[in-house]
Each structure stands twice: as C-alpha cells, then as structure tokens.
Input
Amino acid sequence: MKQTVNKEDFMHAFHRFNRYEQFGYDALSVLFDYYEQLEDDIGEEIELDVIAICCDWSVCTAEEIQQEWDIDVDDLRDNTIVLDVDDDIFLVQSF
Output
C-alpha cells in the first residue's frame, strides 16, 4: 500500500523520527523536490524511508567538504550528487 506524500507530510515524517534537525527546513525542502523530480524522471514512485535518507545524505558547508574530502564542491559533483541548499550549504549523497 502506498501513500502520496506532499512536502508538509515529508517534513512531518522527519519530525516523527526526530531527524528534522539533521537537515532543517531548507535542506528537507530541497530533498523533497529532488525526490519528486527523480520520480518523474524514472517514472516510478519512491517509497519514503526517513532513516535511509538520513543515512544517504549529509548537510555540509563548502569548508566542511574541503576538510572532509580535500576537494572543492565542483569537483565533488564529479563523484556524487551534490544539491545546493544555499550559497554555502550543500546536500551531499554518500558515496
């Protein structure tokens, strides 16, 4: 059984699992838009799995990316998916 989830439902799911603070509103909004676009691109529904999303994504600044991987944001995009949250905050998919 599947349930259609809107952005508000998506946010509430992270609150229910006490994982909202891991991302915050802006990053979760970007993730919601990413997964909606991905569903359209692949033509399949994606099951909402809050824990898997928390394991798959990290919120990082450009400085943290440089320190963690010794690479700048543009070069990191060659290795994994990087989503811009704002000018200096990024969502990085685990790789």
